[in-house]
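Task 17 of the worksheet. Students: predict the tertiary structure of the chain below and write it out as structure tokens. Keep your answer in the requested format; marks are given for formatting as well as content.
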Amino acid sequence: MPISHFFAEGIGPFKKVHLDLRGPDGHPSLGPHVLAGVNGSGKSTILKAIAWCLAQPADGFAEEDWAHFLNWHTKSRVLLVLDIAGVYRCTYARTKDGDEGWQTRLGGWVNETLGTVGLSPGEYPLVWEVPGRKFNAAAYSSARFVRFIDRPDMAVQAYEPATRRFGFEATVNNDAIQAWLLVLYSKRAIAKERHASTSRYTVAFDALERGLRRVCGEDVSIEVDIEPSFQPRLRIGEQVLNFSQIPDGVKATLGWMADFMMRGEALDWDPKLQGKRPGLLLFDEIEGFLHPLWQRRLLPAVREALPETQSIVTSHSPFVISSCADATIHVLKVNKDGSAYAEPPVPAPIGESITSTLKDIFGVDSRFDVETERLLNEWNELNKIRAEDKFKPADEARLKELTRVLSSRSEELRSIVSQPSPLPKATVDRLTETPRGGRVRRRVATH
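Model answer:
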């Protein structure tokens, strides 16, 4: 179920934080929502806080590790506002003091917080569990999720959709994924043999293949070997590879995408949803193991493969952030005292250059590596000294050496340092001084 608002107090680097995840229509935006900021600004903290608020004992959330994010706060609590218009509207809340008496303890805070964004407590009641738990939610972090299994056990298909769903790096079950793919393939083949509709068993296959094709940029399909063992494989172009042979970026993408779809297929969806399959995808550092070319394709692939799922991800990649027209960027920053805060959300910088995204979103002003930037700054400072007529012989020698070194590094740097140096101020004044007649004196070069 999509989230419209996230509120928290006393978690990680945040004293208080609010994320507005609504679209222009006032309802939750499916995003993708990208959390961006420097290390220590709380990106992963927010994802884990959402999982903490929703998690139950079987969900695999690392409660002991999470406790370290709350240790230095006297009060820690999280509130999620969830909304499927006309179906469910509710709030989840969690405090580090445990769940006993949670409604009495948190009710006043929830009502007060909802009022700050104009929501009525009666319209968004405080609940522990959405009726029937009828929405797909899972959390991931970058890892090489899948690998070759000699003889996948199809009995592993008996897989609870909520099992370990908030384990992040431990969420994906490689055995269950491969068993699920084999079961779908078998059911599709049996339905075809009986001249029955196969659409029920091809929907997930097709969506998974569309997502992988969008990322990889070439023909990708899932195939199954019958002999010598019943086993899923991946065709990429002309190659047919087992799950240990495929590239790491494909392993990571196939792993979490198949896992999320498998969980959705296992849910008993509520008839009130009228065929909709809402989901919530949390992903920490979604660009992991992906080449920049594939990073640019990842968020559009998520939107295509999971069109009814709200995705909230963290990223350090300008290629991810500037890749999807539907994305919303939430920039997190750090105060001088080390506390973090969230700036108002902004649309993804579609049409902007990567250099512009680096500067505006990540605060990286330089186009070059750190060492080249240092040399270029020194080169600029020496030119300023020369313009002020304070140049010394040692400065002249150093400037020539810097010009030589920078010119040798790239054509772009050569064009920068080879530009004519600015004229000294005294020279400019002499060239532009105005005589008594009122006309600018022009010096004409003689040969």
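Marker's comment: The first strand starts at residue 3 and ends at 11. Residues 394 and 400 are 10 Å apart (CA to CA).
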